[in-house]
Amino acid sequence: MPKDIRLNAFAMNCVGHQSPGLWRHPRDRSAEFNRLSYWIDLARTLEAGLFDGLFLADVLGVYDVYGGSPASALRRGAQVPANDPMLIVPAMAAATRHLGFGVTSNLSYEPPFPFARRMSTLDHLTDGRVGWNVVTGYLDSAARAAGLAKQRAHDDRYAVAGEYMDVVYGLWEQSWDDDAVVRDHARGVFTDPTKVRPFVHRGAHFEVNAVHLSQPSPQRTPVIYQAGTSPKGRAFAARHAECVFMSGPSPQAIAPRVADIRRLAAEAGRDPAAITIFAMATVVVAQTDAAAEAKLADYRRYVSAEGALTLMSGWTGVDFSTYRLDQQVAHVETDAGRTAMENITRADPSRVWTVREVAEHVGVGGIGPVFVGGPATVADRMEAWVAATGVDGFNLACAVAPESYEDVADLVVPELQRRGRYKRAYAPGTLREKLGGAGPRVDARHPAAGFRHARAADAAE
């Protein structure tokens, strides 16, 4: 029997996100991103559509590669202004019961100790419905904001990330016993100090000797998301990720990456099927194919080509303002997001992109495909992509917010349910359990579990 197709919403605490210029559309509300009511309404819409979660992107830094300045990003609203994604999660959690929240946080510019506490806090406040999208960054502007001349080399960032994970796993899994908090009113003891210990780590990049400040949260380690699909990124995902987010314009670009991550996961001793993989896509749907095509044509009237190329320049590290619109895009290696450039150069040899085509494609929903049509047509496209790539579902970017998600909930979800390809109710438990995990904690084959086992071994000595 075919498995359910999973859906996340892909958004960012900014205007426009992946569809530059569409904030000008008369039905778009994304310019209200700095108001809690916008996010609470969105969360309720997604929960009504039984979305697994809201995947919140984030970048530290401004897109200043295009033209060598942030002017285009500021002028076109290309992911700036942008607010902190973590601060909107508690309000959305309070307004929902099941929706999960995947929060992007860049580990390159924050020590692991305070970050671990913030994630534990969110896990408590959401009753275990939070995940962390682990990123190492791709903008030199973020490095300069942190007092560095430029970001570390691409592969070096993943070496730091591996050690960072060890530190946060140790804090989350090893520092406190499950029963450390006793709340003994008679004795006046809140926490049994014999069941709490400092986590000690001395490595190449971090030194920590500290008791984790938060008591064990429902999941301890949040669900680990990862979006890097370069060779180093895939190796990192295969070791750590429980959910992987991929972006690419065609099945030919996505399928080999899916297969490679599952192969690497097996080599790392993990169950490849335990990794849930989402591909980015955008849905433009209406009652009929013709009406959906007309809707997409209407959306395209508002696309900012400059904004699209500003985003693509930031993602790739290549200044597209130096290209002619009819010029073919050549592959250039940079220390930014290598996969973004590969998507339009080498990932699908059957297609050659011009700069104009890149701007048109990225303008609605980013680098992923656009599924356009009536409910049956969109469902057909989704099923075909799942079959061709091996992904488990989609991170759905938004063309017009929140209309794109309302349309999916109202039109696509019922069609997928009719076909037996979409859940009719949420599973109980934490986000990890709703995504198919056997329990609220990481499974025994995940590297975080090794820190839990180390705690148990220490107690036995």
Written overview of the protein:
- The chain has an eight-stranded parallel beta barrel with strand order 1-2-3-4-9-10-11-13, surrounded by seven helices. The chain has a two-stranded antiparallel ribbon with strand order 5-6. Strands 7-8 form a two-stranded antiparallel ribbon.
- The radius of gyration is 22 Å and the shape is globular.
- The protein has one domain (6-303, 367-460): TIM Barrel, CATH 3.20.20.30.
- 39% of the residues lie in helices and 15% in strands.
- The chain is built from 16 helices and 13 strands.
- With 461 residues, the chain is α/β, with parallel strands linked by helices.
Unreliable stretches covering 5 or more consecutive residues: none
* Rg for CA atoms: 22 Å
- What percent strand? 5-15%
User: How much helix is in the residues?
Assistant: 25-40%
Number of helices, counting only DSSP H or I runs of 4 residues or more = 16
Residue-averaged pLDDT: 92
The CATH topology name reads TIM Barrel
